[in-house]
Amino acid sequence: MANKIGRILLGIIILAAIAVGVYYILPGSIKNPLTQTIQSNTNDNYAPIVDALKAATFPKNKGVTYDSKLSTQDSNAWTIKEISVDDAGNGSYDVYYDAYKITVSVENSTNDTGMVTHTNAHVRLTFHVKKQGSEIKIGDKVVEAGKAAAPSEIDVAESHYTSSDEYFQPVIDCLANL
Fold first, then answer.
1. What does the buried/exposed string (b/e) look like for 156-173 if buried means 16 or more CB atoms within 10 Å of the residue's CB?
2. Cα separation, 12 vs 49, whole angstroms
3. Radius of gyration for the chain, computed over Cα atoms and rounded to the nearest angstrom
4. What pLDDT is stored for residue 130 in this prediction?
5. Angle, to 10 degrees, between the axis of helix 46-55 and the axis of helix 28-42?
6. 3-state helix, strand, coil in the chain (%, to 5)
7. Angle at 139 between CA 123 and CA 103, to 5 degrees
């Protein structure tokens, strides 16, 4: 009897190891939506943080919320990573928005056409968020519905943009006009 129970437990452990291994080798277009589903069902801090960011607007694009433009993109996902969080859920988070197969055209003075176009690109927005109770902040600004909230970083294909980059706002404008 103990031998059968041991084999069943070993079989469960092997199946779990295979499932975890498959998860880690999945491409981001499949893994990120799966991670979003898991986080939204298991993390109590997921909904307040992500919903606040979805209701915020693109900087310098009044009335254009992240949810209205980004939720229509292919294989999109909002995921969070706890950086320094206490038992009550207060602390620092990185929030990622990932989308795949997006065409982004960005001004660029380093080539002849003045534009760089990425087709079927992976786009990632990274927000560095602090949560204190029900208040969500990016830097010193409280994230509120209808108010602008800028990501800290934007990755489009192989290009990386930060808020100090001259092409940061044109990338935001392009995403706001998808």
1. beebebeeeeebbbbbbb
2. 35
3. 20
4. 92
5. 120
6. 35, 35, 30
7. 15
SS3 state at 82: strand
- Using DSSP bridges, classify how beta strands 153-156 and 115-132 pair: parallel, antiparallel or unpaired: antiparallel
Q: Who's near 64: CB < 8 A, 6+ residues apart?
A: 57, 58, 176
Please give the chain's pLDDT, 178 residues, in tens: 778 888 899 999 999 999 888 888 888 888 888 888 998 999 988 989 999 999 988 888 888 888 888 877 777 899 999 999 888 888 999 999 998 888 888 776 666 666 778 788 888 999 999 998 888 888 888 888 888 888 999 888 888 888 888 888 888 888 887 7
Tokens at 94, concatenated: 């990185």
- Number of other residues whose CB lies within 10 A of the CB of residue 131: 23
pTM of the entire predicted model: 0.83
H runs (alpha helix) in 26-162: 28-42, 46-55, 66-70
Please name the residues in contact with 145: beta carbons below 8 A apart, sequence gap of 6 or more: 52, 55, 56, 65
Nearest to 37 by CA among 25, 23, 55: 23
